[in-house]
Amino acid sequence: SSQDRVPHRHHVVQYVHLYRDAAKADIMQLIMYLLGFFNEFRRPDRDSQVMVHYENIAPEYRGFFDITNDTTFFNYPFDFESITFFFPYAWAIDPSKPTLTPKYESVSIPYKVSLSKYDILNIQREYKCGIDNGNKIDLLDGTVSYCNFEFDLCEWTQLTDDDFDFQRMKGPSPRSNVTGPMADYSSGTGYYVYAGAQGEHNEDARVISPVLNAGEYCLRFYYFLYGQDIHKFRVNTRVGDRDTVLDSLEGNQGGSWHTYSKDITMNTKFQIFLEAIIGGTDNGDMAFDDVYIFRGRCIA
């Protein structure tokens, strides 16, 4: 495994196989392994920062999470932004439960497509690279809006032209043993936005973004649709009093979080609103978390 190499170890051949649809972040993570760096959550001090749920990791993958006493971490702060950090549900036996959770409230494991500040410093120090960062490109520099709902809805607001309101929820939802989430997406201990089906049959809930200027954007979030009577979760735009449905996510998606991303190009000011339309029974809960709006096209 390329995860078990050390920088400057000579005469070692390493093979990495890339799938055609491999995401850029995954490729960058593999390059870090090839350079000899370990995952950030494997550093010796990790137990003070993050909890690893070995009981939810298949035995053959537990080695990916073990602590290493490697010296390449130096003495930099623990870095949740590192490109080497797995997403919270990586290698989960039960995909409704995380394998990694931060130990401190309001700390999350964010979406990332660029090397972090400390990833770069580690490479520069170990390989004695120059310290010029003039050619560094931050692929997330165009972030227009981001909300993980840890404290409130941020710039998103509940609409009044719907039937009921979404709820901010922490931990297992009221129906987590049936159709609701067990935890949020980005930390496993934080908040998400929830639309429970119980008592809200054939009704809808909506939240809307701030006004965005004309241009090209990427919308990205994580969603949870579980139950045999899931109706629709819609992504819409609003220009004045004209609404347009961009996507309609329908049907039972299973008891785990999924990624949604969409390129949106508009020639006038507009808003985005997310809408949960409940089915005719209690058997269908919906939730979303970690909503990003980037300027420009989506990055895989």
Automatic annotation (TrEMBL):
Co-factor requirement: Zn(2+)
UniProt GO MF annotations: metal ion binding; metalloendopeptidase activity
GO biological process: proteolysis
Top enzyme category: hydrolase
Its EC number(s): 3.4.24.-
Record note on cofactor: Binds 1 zinc ion per subunit.
Signal sequence range: none
Keyword list, A-Z: Hydrolase, Metal-binding, Metalloprotease, Protease, Zinc
Segments forming domain Peptidase M12A: 1-130
Domain MAM: 145-300
InterPro entries in the record: ConA-like_dom_sf, MAM_dom, MAM_domain-containing, MetalloPept_cat_dom_sf, Peptidase_M12A
One cellular component term from this protein's GO annotations in UniProt: membrane
Source organism, top-level taxon: Eukaryota
CDD domains, per database record: MAM (cd06263)
Protein name in UniProt: Metalloendopeptidase
Organism from which the protein derives: Magallana gigas
